[in-house]
Design brief:
Layout lengths: L1 H9 L1 H10 L28 H11 L2 H7 L2 E3 L2 E2 L10 E4 L30 H7 L2 H17 L4 E2 L23 H16 L4 E7 L12 E3 L2 H8 L1 H8 L5 E4 L3 E2 L2 E2 L4 H11 L5 E3 L8 H7 L15 H4 L2 H11 L5 H17 L15 H14 L1 E5 L13 E5 L24 H9 L4 E5 L9 H13 L2 E7 L22 H11 L3 E6 L15 E4 L7 H9 L21 H4 L9 E3 L8 H6 L17 E10 L6 E9 L5 E11 L10 E10 L4 E8 L1 H4 L1 E3 L4 E3 L3 E10 L2 E10 L2
Helix pairs in contact: 3-14, 4-13, 5-15, 6-7, 6-15, 7-9, 11-13, 15-19, 16-19, 17-18
The protein binds beta-D-glucopyranose.
The site of beta-D-glucopyranose has 8 residues, from loops.
Length: 735
């Protein structure tokens, strides 16, 4: 990727050809940087170091021009400084594809015709692939499309921890484990930023529920912050060199996250040395002085009421801040630091340089990446007696049932929606794959608008008349389901789907249940009866094709859960301890480090499906665990063999968990510290090596204000899920 970026930047011919070929790239004339006339200033000299260019440009800016960089001038932009050739800076959502253009001053669609984008699978799907290469490819698609849509900063990825399964945005989240989120987040960001676009990792650091998110105060202790909620952000900064960070709406220890002195000034910019900008979430700024001094660099947002450009001059970091700097109430150095932080990503993205990567939009390659992510993300939860894959030659008819078989899920719902060129639904995918060979019928079975028992009856009849029934159940992006702003009210399927599935099963025991949703769902008593269940997520533009290929055996499922599925909501830590949704405005993180599987393990609670779980159409055998010290900079590598012992090609995610014997501070029973996805032909065996560095053994010691890896024994467990450990041995860490 880096090579491609280099070649494009240094080869005008290649670039010209690409530009010619891409009728889709859509730079608008007013957005192009116009360099000042006269002698070439230092900041336009590409041979100069970036920091020198930044300081040179800063030195030429007036107070007003500087202020213009630190607040929005429309829903998704900051103002241009034409005199100096600083273009308007365009920002956009989001994690699953570049959002349609809205505004400029309202949330209404702007009516452009060139703002389609590839709708990628949801981040909960990407997480479930456990494939770091796919995370990079996913980010690359987002980066390329951002450039082609003329965006400078893309508001993604989300690396917040899925703390409660009822969080309305859980489908936008990678999962419940900090290590997994960090690994996938880093690669996503690198993919984006290799395209001359800044990624904006969010929401620093919290937003674990939608209920009360605008004001809720998170109360967690230092170890929990450092070990659970911060690591994915720390990796984004230190490893992926992310250029922008969005502060969460929530408060931590009484101060809003977006300008929380401790989080932003001390940890992010101080300890981690983050040189880029901190942006508020939309409408997440509440005071000028706190924001200015607490480390917020760019105020973005939503003003209720007036919907025109003048609203933006009323922002806290607009006129108010300008007056404060003018009267020395706040020093100029505070403003200068913010502007430098805005300019650095612009130089990094080559905004002022003759060659900036043009990107590409809606290409067949992007759709292929979307499909591959979808195929690798689907998690086979149950498959008794090899009910799946379906064999077309043994069937004559299939009844497809459920609103989600035909529902379009790409558009709408805040920042996670995408204006897609098309959407292959589950029914489309099934019809296109087997429609010519099987009689495929469709029946809604339920409706989100009415309680019509005829729908159930018709579905039951269709199921009875078919060889196989496929119920495409799940949630949608309606309020109190998978939707920003509201959490779910429970974990059950809505619209009477549990009863529908039960009745369909009674009519046809060959009933396959497909779940289109974010994780997790509390599954009804039908779970014990139906032979097969597949978690399909919101799977993007090509999702229906991916699903059909899995159901009919062209693709072997290899997704694994990134969130524990509890048997009942009350088994999950935030609910077992009654901390959700908070008390008098404060959310107590009483479970401490025991988030997700850490809790279920520590409390010996049987989950419905454990973290890391997912079946395959083939079987894998693990053997020969050994520890190889000091390999390639690591403390030790765990080396072992995996063989495909079945009859189909497939992929296994090998997961490595660590448990410390007798730590000086208590630690969870096991923690994910490594994983690898291995692709194997039938009968094939590969040796896998998972390196572990010092940090893999360490915990955060508040008394020492740092990470400590104690000498002693560590149990290393390796397997196909957090509850399916196939190999284990003790490793002794020397001091
Ligand atoms: C969300 C952000 C999003 C922003 C802009 C907010 O409501 O929390 O994730 O980027 O809106 O759409």
């Amino acid at each position: 990727m880096k090579f491609v970026a280099y070649t494009l930047r240094h080869s005008p011919v290649v670039l010209g050809l690409i530009l010619l070929g891409l009728g889709t790239a859509c730079l608008r004339a007013e957005d192009k940087p116009v360099p000042p006339v006269g002698q070439t200033p230092l900041y336009l000299d590409t041979n100069q170091p970036v920091e020198k260019r930044v300081n040179d440009l800063l030195g030429r800016m007036t107070l007003e021009e500087k202020i213009a960089q630190v607040h929005a001038d429309s829903k998704f932009s900051t103002a241009a400084v034409p005199r100096l050739g600083i273009p308007r800076r365009w920002i956009d959502d989001g994690p699953h594809g570049v959002r349609e253009d809205v505004g400029p001053y309202s949330w209404n669609a702007s009516g452009h015709t060139d703002d389609y984008a590839t709708w990628m699978p949801a981040l909960s799907a990407l997480g479930s692939t456990w494939n770091v290469d796919l995370a990079m490819a996913f980010g690359d698609v987002i980066g390329q499309e951002s450039r082609a849509r003329n965006k400078d900063i893309i508001l993604a990825p989300i690396v917040d921890i899925a703390r409660t399964p009822i969080c309305g945005r859980i489908y936008e989240y990678l999962g419940e484990d900090p290590y997994l989120n960090a690994r996938l987040g880093v690669n996503y960001i690198e993919g984006v930023q290799s395209n001359d676009v800044a990624a904006c990792v969010k929401h620093f650091a919290g937003n674990n529920q939608e209920e009360g998110r605008g004001t809720i105060n998170m109360d967690m202790d230092e170890r929990v912050l450092r070990e659970i909620y911060l690591p994915p952000f720390e990796a984004a900064v230190k490893e992926a060199h992310v250029w922008a960070v969005m502060g969460a709406y929530t408060k931590l220890r009484g101060e809003y996250c977006a300008y929380n002195d401790y989080l932003i000034n001390k940890i992010l910019k101080g300890e981690w040395g983050f040189p880029g900008l901190v942006m508020s979430d939309w409408g997440g700024t509440h005071s000028m002085r706190e924001a200015a001094l607490g480390g917020l660099d760019v105020e973005m947002g939503t003003l209720v009421g007036s919907e025109d450009q003048s609203a933006y001059t009323n922002f806290f970091l607009a006129t108010q801040f300008l007056d404060a700097v003018r009267t020395n109430a706040i020093p100029m150095s505070v403003l200068d630091d913010k502007v430098r932080r805005s300019l650095r990503p612009m130089f990094a993205a080559h905004i002022f340089d003759p060659m900036r990567l043009p990107g590409a939009l809606n290409t067949p390659e992007h759709r292929a990446t979307a499909q591959r992510v979808a195929e690798e993300s689907m998690v086979l939860l149950k498959n008794d007696h090899q009910a799946l894959p379906l064999n077309v030659s043994n069937l004559t008819s299939v009844a497809v049932i459920g609103e989600n078989a035909v529902r379009h899920n790409a558009a709408g719902f805040f920042g996670a929606g995408v204006k897609t060129m098309y959407e292959v639904t589950p029914l489309d995918g099934i019809e296109q794959l087997v429609g010519g060979r099987l009689n495929v019928t469709y029946s809604a079975g339920y409706s989100r608008f009415s309680n019509d028992s005829n729908l159930v009856e018709r579905a039951v009849t269709a199921a009875r008349q078919a060889d196989v029934a496929i119920v495409v159940a799940g949630l949608n992006h309606s309020r109190h389901q998978d939707d920003e702003g509201w959490d779910r009210t429970d974990l059950r399927l809505p619209y009477g789907q549990d009863e529908l599935i039960q009745k369909v099963f009674e009519a046809n025991p060959r009933t396959i249940v497909v779940l289109v949703s974010g994780p997790a769902i509390e599954l009804g008593s039908w779970l014990a009866q139906v032979p097969a269940v597949l978690q399909a997520h919101y799977s993007g533009i090509e999702g229906g094709h991916a699903l059909a290929r899995i159901l009919f055996g062209e693709v072997n499922p290899s997704g694994k859960l990134t969130v524990t599925y509890p048997k009942q909501l009350q088994d999950s830590p935030a609910h077992a301890l009654g901390t959700y949704p908070g008390t008098n405005g404060t959310l107590f993180y009483k479970e401490g480090l025991l988030v997700g599987y850490r809790w279920f393990d520590a409390k010996n609670i049987e989950p419905e499906f454990p973290f890391g779980f997912g079946l395959s159409y083939t079987t894998f055998e693990y053997s020969n665990l050994k520890f190889v010290p000091h390999q390639g900079g690591s403390v030790v590598s765990a080396e072992f063999d995996i063989a495909n012992t079945g009859l189909r090609a497939g992929a296994e995610v090998a997961e490595l968990y660590i448990h410390q014997d007798n730590p000086s501070l208590s630690r969870p029973p096991k923690e994910l510290k490594g994983f690898k996805k291995i692709f194997l032909q039938p009968g094939e065996k590969k040796t896998v090596s998972i390196p572990l560095d010092q940090r893999a053994f360490a915990f955060y010691d508040p008394a020492k204000a740092g990470w400590v890896a104690e000498a002693g024994d560590y149990k290393i467990e390796i397997g196909g899920s957090s509850r399916d450990i196939r190999l284990a041995d003790t490793f002794h860490l020397q001091q």
